[in-house]
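pls design
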């Protein structure tokens, strides 16, 4: 009996050894994962793609929240206090709720300018940079449009920036991060090609937006932004603004309104009723809908839904659904 037990124990030991050896071929040995905190699920997705098993990721905002007004929770402070790397979108996207939270975390390594801080808009050329006068009037996008996570071309930029940040805080993982970046860029290239086949039918199509978050996507395919319902980003429309938008939409025969779930969609519905336009309510970040489980699927879904609203084709082989 004793003999049998010890043989079984030896078998388990061997099995454990084989498993460890097998796993180590895939996951480079590292006892403690790099702690990454991302402000939005899009950045967390790129950290996951590039960081793989070497990282543990926490995301501050839920995909369904207004990115400019994320509800601050105590768990965020705990996550930030333990972070090795912090990723923000930048361009003042998180300016209303984040700076104080970062300071209160007491984590010196992730403060702006430190090794563990990454502004992911670094190197990105923003559209719609306001003049100094509108900046003084409390513009919500003071450094230009920060919603570039909605640009189908932004994936490569975000993947590259996140990879460089990971190498900076974890140089031993460089080879691993390089390999994952290469695979990610390849997947993005394929995805961009299938999105281009859908978006090529949208050139000149007129749309109205509530907030200006869909402007990068519209610009990518040469869509025409006929009107913004908010007179300025973050400023709710007055009855006069609504009347102006209805007039512009009727004159220009705009048939589609793109809006996010968190926008004031009672006013959007009112405008749609008066103009007969279709309302396309879309998430503006990963996890903002049950189908937007990662950044590529998020873009696939956006493309499919906008194509449906315009009545333009989606190629058979496309994953966009
Ligand atoms: Zn905004």
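designed seq:
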């Amino acid at each position: 009996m004793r003999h049998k037990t010890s043989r079984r124990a030896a078998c388990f030991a061997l099995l454990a050894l084989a498993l460890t050896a097998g796993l180590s071929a895939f996951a480079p040995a590292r006892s403690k994962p790099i702690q990454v905190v991302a402000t939005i699920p899009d950045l967390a997705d790129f950290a996951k793609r590039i960081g793989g098993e070497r990282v543990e990721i926490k995301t501050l905002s839920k995909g369904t929240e207004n990115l400019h007004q994320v509800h601050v929770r105590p768990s965020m402070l705990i996550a930030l206090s333990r972070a090795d790397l912090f990723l923000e979108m930048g361009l003042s996207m998180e300016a209303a709720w984040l700076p104080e939270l970062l300071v209160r975390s007491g984590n010196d390594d992730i403060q702006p300018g430190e090794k563990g801080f990454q502004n992911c808009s670094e190197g990105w050329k923003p559209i719609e940079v306001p003049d100094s006068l509108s900046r003084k009037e409390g513009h919500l996008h003071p450094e230009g449009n920060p919603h570039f996570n909605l640009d189908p071309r932004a994936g490569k930029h975000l993947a590259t920036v996140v990879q460089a940040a990971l190498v900076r805080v974890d140089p031993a993982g460089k080879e691993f991060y390089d390999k994952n970046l290469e695979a990610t860029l390849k997947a993005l290239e394929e995805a961009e090609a299938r999105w281009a086949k859908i978006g090529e039918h949208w050139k000149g199509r007129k749309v109205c937006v509530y907030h200006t978050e869909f402007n990068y996507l519209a610009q990518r395919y040469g869509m025409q932004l006929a009107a913004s319902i908010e007179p300025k980003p973050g400023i709710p429309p007055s009855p006069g603004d609504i009347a102006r938008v209805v007039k512009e939409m009727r004159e220009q025969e705009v048939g589609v309104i793109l809006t996010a779930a968190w926008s004031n969609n009672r006013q959007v519905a009112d405008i749609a009723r008066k103009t007969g336009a279709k309302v396309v309510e879309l998430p503006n970040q990963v996890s903002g809908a049950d189908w937007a489980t990662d950044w590529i699927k998020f873009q696939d879904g956006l493309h499919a839904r906008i194509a449906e609203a315009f009545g333009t084709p989606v190629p058979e082989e496309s994953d966009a659904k």
